[in-house]
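Q: What residues go here?
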């Protein structure tokens, strides 16, 4: 049976189930949804059980949308919204999504925009036939978020066609042949970097992550040229666990070489990975390196993104259903639960996880309805990998800053723009507020400010305590006056030549380029200054060499390579990592419900993957393996 046959049959059942007085102008698959278009959306709204009963009969997720002919023109709709919503709600932005018939209204006072028992929203819906939602206006406007929303609005017709094409692939039906479930290790196994795994069934090919190893010039891409991966058009879906480049950096390359399916991720992941991918192109061009794709391919990713929240479940292929859960690693990071077939098999990909509540996020989820296999990261899975608590890390950072201030020195903190920056910011703000360190300027250089703006756009992804602090007390530590944004080369030069003590948070986190190198080159020869590593330093990176005690490193000075002598203090402040240490990984496995039958370890140096695999097998009597890249494991 073809998809056209399935749709024809569904349309017949809908006509038989819906009263003749209710018009249905079109029925289409859009992604995993079955969308009913009607010229009388208010009749569906009055008869709520109608859609519920239809969904039960058809075994499909159904959405009712107004026919485009009855939807108010965008300019008129915007004017009408501003007339209906009281001025004291303070609207800051209105984002229309024509592809799904929705409009998001940003307001400084969401309650005033919603109205008592949602009266204002209902009035908007009746007057313009768009489905409205009210979101709290972020305190810092993100250029990335604004541009992505604007781009999607301009591409709404193309986007609708993309969703329909994806919908037809999802609902094409399953085959009657032999059932199997297997994964192929394409990158990030017995190594950190270029994470990529193929989840393969008899009817589906799903790519989980497609990252780049930024610390390697040679083997920096996953093995996506294998016969079982190619041609890329045969991949059904791509799922991105989180935005870091070692997980998302080569997703645009897939579109360059023929992939045209969906990318599933959370909304913050979509925005963050766009920011990081654009910066990756910029840095590569500045370093005269070959760029693997263009900004046009990044825009293709945005067009094909289907975003989901934590706890949301959707069909992504004829036989695979995906659910996202909080991973606690960075903003929007997700653990991916795949339900294969009608209860055939359940497999979870952890992505990068933190099994501890941090200053930013709640701890990683480890309770699932069903689970047979777990693919688990092991970045800090070695026998000596024990990180200090957040409290100990705070104390250590406080001592380092105070020591440096006594010597009137500068403190450089190389950070990843996403995650570590915001954690360090919250800790420093708290230390200043409690007068545990002097009130000194903290300069933010690189993408940190924009990444922080994206954090403020999605407060619902932050931990309970921080959300409460932001919403109920009106206090957001990320907006403290101690933080100063470096927004020009001139300002950077001024800070570098200034004699006053300060703290600089700058990218890149592993010192492979970025503005952090400008501060390091200027301040490395003064032993009153300090550099503090708060994040993972991969083998072969400049950061790792300095951390291990290199006395000099080669740097680019005005186009020439020169050896830079290192005299400043080199400190490591563990405890800020967004990865679980060995103890937390054991805790994550020990408290899992249900306990998996098999655990596959990845995303760790070879010795760590092998060691934790062996120990977990002995301790929990679970089948474990730490495969190499290019190995395949069959589950069913």
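A:
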């Amino acid at each position: 049976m073809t998809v056209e046959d399935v749709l024809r049959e569904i349309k017949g059942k809908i006509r038989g189930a819906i009263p003749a007085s209710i018009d249905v102008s079109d029925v289409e698959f859009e992604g995993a949804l079955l969308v009913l278009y009607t010229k009388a959306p208010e009749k569906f709204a009055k008869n709520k059980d109608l859609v519920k009963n239809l969904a039960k009969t058809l075994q499909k997720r159904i959405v009712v949308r107004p026919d485009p002919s009855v939807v108010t023109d965008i300019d008129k709709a915007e004017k009408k919204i501003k007339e209906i919503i009281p001025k004291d709600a303070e609207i800051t932005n209105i984002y229309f999504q024509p592809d799904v018939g929705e409009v998001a209204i940003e307001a400084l006072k969401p309650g005033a925009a919603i109205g008592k028992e949602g009266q204002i929203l209902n009035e908007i819906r009746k007057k313009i036939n768009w489905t409205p939602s009210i979101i709290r206006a972020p305190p810092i406007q993100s250029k990335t978020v604004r541009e992505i929303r604007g781009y999607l609005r301009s591409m709404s017709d193309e986007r609708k066609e993309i969703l329909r094409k994806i919908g037809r692939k999802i609902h094409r039906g399953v085959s009657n042949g032999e059932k199997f479930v297997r994964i192929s290790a394409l990158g990030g196994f017995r190594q950190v970097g270029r994470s990529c795994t193929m989840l393969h069934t008899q009817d589906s090919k799903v790519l989980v992550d497609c990252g780049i190893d930024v610390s390697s010039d040679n083997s920096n891409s996953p093995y996506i040229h294998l016969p079982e991966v190619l041609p890329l058009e045969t991949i059904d879906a791509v799922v991105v666990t989180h935005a870091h480049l070692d997980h998302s950096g080569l997703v645009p390359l897939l579109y360059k070489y023929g992939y045209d399916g969906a990318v599933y991720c959370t909304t913050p992941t979509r925005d963050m990975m766009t920011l990081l991918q654009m910066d990756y192109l910029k840095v590569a061009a500045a370093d005269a390196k070959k760029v693997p794709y263009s900004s046009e391919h990044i825009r293709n990713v945005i067009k094909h993104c289907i975003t989901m929240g934590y706890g949301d479940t959707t069909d992504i292929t004829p036989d695979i259903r995906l659910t996202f859960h909080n991973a606690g690693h960075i903003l929007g990071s997700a653990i991916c639960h795949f339900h294969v077939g009608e209860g055939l098999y359940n497999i979870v990909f952890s992505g990068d996880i933190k099994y501890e509540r941090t200053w930013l996020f709640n701890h990683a989820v480890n309770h699932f309805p069903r689970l047979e296999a777990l693919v688990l990261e092991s970045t800090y899975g070695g026998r000596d990998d024990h990180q200090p608590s957040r409290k100990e890390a705070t104390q250590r950072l406080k001592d380092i800053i105070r020591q440096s201030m006594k010597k009137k020195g500068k403190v450089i903190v190389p950070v990843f723009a996403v995650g570590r920056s915001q954690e360090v910011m919250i800790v420093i703000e708290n230390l200043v507020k409690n007068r545990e360190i002097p009130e000194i300027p903290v300069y933010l250089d690189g993408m940190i400010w924009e990444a922080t703006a994206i954090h403020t756009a999605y407060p619902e992804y932050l931990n309970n305590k921080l959300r409460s602090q932001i919403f109920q007390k009106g206090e957001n530590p990320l907006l403290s006056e101690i933080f100063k944004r470096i927004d020009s080369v001139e300002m950077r030069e001024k800070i570098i030549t200034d004699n006053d003590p300060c703290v600089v948070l700058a990218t890149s986190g592993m010192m492979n380029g970025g503005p952090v190198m400008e501060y390091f080159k200027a301040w490395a020869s003064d032993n009153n200054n300090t550099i503090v590593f708060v994040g993972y330093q991969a083998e072969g990176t400049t950061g790792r060499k300095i951390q291990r005690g290199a006395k000099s490193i080669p740097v680019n000075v005005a186009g020439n390579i020169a050896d830079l002598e290192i005299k400043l203090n080199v400190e490591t402040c563990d405890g800020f990592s967004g990865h679980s240490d060995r103890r937390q990984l054991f805790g994550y496995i020990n408290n899992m419900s249900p306990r998996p039958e098999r655990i596959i370890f990845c995303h760790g140096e070879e010795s760590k993957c092998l060691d934790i695999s062996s120990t977990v097998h002995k301790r929990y009597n679970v089948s474990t393996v730490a495969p190499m890249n290019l190995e395949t494991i069959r589950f069913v």
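A: Context that may help when evaluating the design: Residues 71-154 form a domain with the GMP Synthetase; Chain A, domain 3 fold (CATH 3.30.300.20). The chain has four domains: 3-69, 71-154, 177-384+579-634, 390-572.
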